[in-house]
Design a protein that fits this description.
Blueprint (H helix, E strand, L loop, with lengths): L3 H11 L4 E10 L4 H13 L5 E7 L5 E10 L2 H12 L4 E4 L1
Length: about 100
């Protein structure tokens, strides 16, 4: 597993902050999954920050891909959001 410092270095090497960052979360297509993903990002960013959300269900309907486009101030915020997303019930994959 990559440590937080390495991930931070990688982020600042390819992004200029503040920036719009896209998070992709794939998980169980349950009734509450999308709202839990959105709430995890809001918990880090606050309600006043811009957060665009789109979803797409898998062909079999068992999974849903959630795309979050968020205006973030710095790489630390990106890492904090990923930490919150990792513990969301039903998450199978993060990009």
């Amino acid at each position: 597993m990559t440590d937080r410092n390495t991930m931070y270095e990688r982020l600042i090497a390819v992004h200029s902050f503040p920036d719009t960052y896209i998070f992709k979360v794939i998980g169980d297509n349950s009734q509450d999954f999308v709202s839990r993903v959105v709430q995890a990002a809001i918990n880090v960013m606050g309600k006043e920050q811009r957060l665009d959300v789109s979803t797409r269900s898998s062909s079999a309907g068992r999974h849903v891909a959630v795309t979050l486009s968020a205006d973030v101030e710095d790489a630390e915020t990106v890492l904090d959001i990923y930490e919150m997303l990792r513990v969301v019930q039903g998450v199978r994959f993060l990009v």
